[in-house]
Amino acid sequence: MNQPTGTQPTGRRERKKAQTRKALADAALRLFSERGYDHVTVAEVAEAADVSVTTLFKHFPSKESLVLDLDADQERILVSAVRDRPAGQTVLAALRSHLLTAGPLNEANWPEYSRFRTLIRSTPVLGEYFRRMWERHEESLARAISEAAGDTEPDITSRALARFALQSVLLASDDPDQYRALTTVFELLERGWGTYDARTVRSAEPEESARPAESA
Predict the structure, then answer these.
(1) How many CB atoms are located within 10 Å of the residue 92 CB?
(2) In terms of CB atoms within 10 Å, which end of the chain has fewer, N or C?
(3) Is 136 helix (H, G, I), strand (E, B) or coil?
(4) 107 close to 45: Cβ distance less than 8 angstroms
(5) Backbone angles phi, psi at 87, to 5 degrees
(6) List of residues 6+ apart from 70 with CB closer than 8 A
(7) Helix, strand, or coil here: 214?
(8) Whole-prediction pTM value?
């Protein structure tokens, strides 16, 4: 999933590399969608993009990454969403805004999103790769959150917030209405669990021993 990152290559070499990466990613998505991920080889993707297999692996380290190319750029953007947030904005608000508008679930950023989502949901190996790739950002995000709080090292609070924020994307990815699901999770994080927990309180029932004995 090669989303726009906001930084366009300026030099001729950089533009050519970006064009090659896009050609490979587009060819992979088309072939995987048409024939199924397991029935397409990297050699066939390379041929469809008119490059060698060696060139393919210079741009993408694995077959999975042809579809899920989010790692370095996404981590940088996630951290930037926290560090460069507007004055007066909380970390949670910044993460919520970023994930809703520029995160990997926002189909407005990518015209092929629906085809990508169908492929991920129908291919377990890609779903697992996406989960592992996304969770790798936890340490960097926790450090950015701890810095925002004035701490030198991440503590349990910053680590928990980083984990919950990242997990919200994974949870929402399985929901029919991903935008609504992501919003719901962040509303829960922003309010705390108290409002939800109040709904789980059971009505008091008299204990068996406390009930009046029946008359003989």
Answers:
(1) 16
(2) C
(3) coil
(4) no
(5) -60, 135
(6) 1, 3, 104, 133, 134
(7) coil
(8) 0.72
Token pair of 178 as six digits: 């991903």
Q: CA 143, CA 149: separation in Å to the nearest integer?
A: 10
Closest by CA position to 40, among listed 52, 49, 28: 28
Taking the alpha carbons of 112, 113, 117, 118 in that order, is the dihedral positive or negative? negative
Distance CA 63, CA 65 (A): 5
Paired tokens of 142? 């926790």
Q: Which two tokens stand for residue 55?
A: 């060139």
Taken as a whole, the chain contains a residue count of: 216
Task: Identify the burial level of 161 via C-beta atoms within 10 angstroms of its C-beta, where 0-12 means exposed, 13-18 middle and 19 or more buried.
Answer: buried
Place of tokens 């998505």: 29
The token duo for 28 is 């992979």
Residue 140: phi and psi, rounded to 5, are -65, -40
Instruction: Round to whole Å and give the CA distance between 73 and 83.
Output: 15
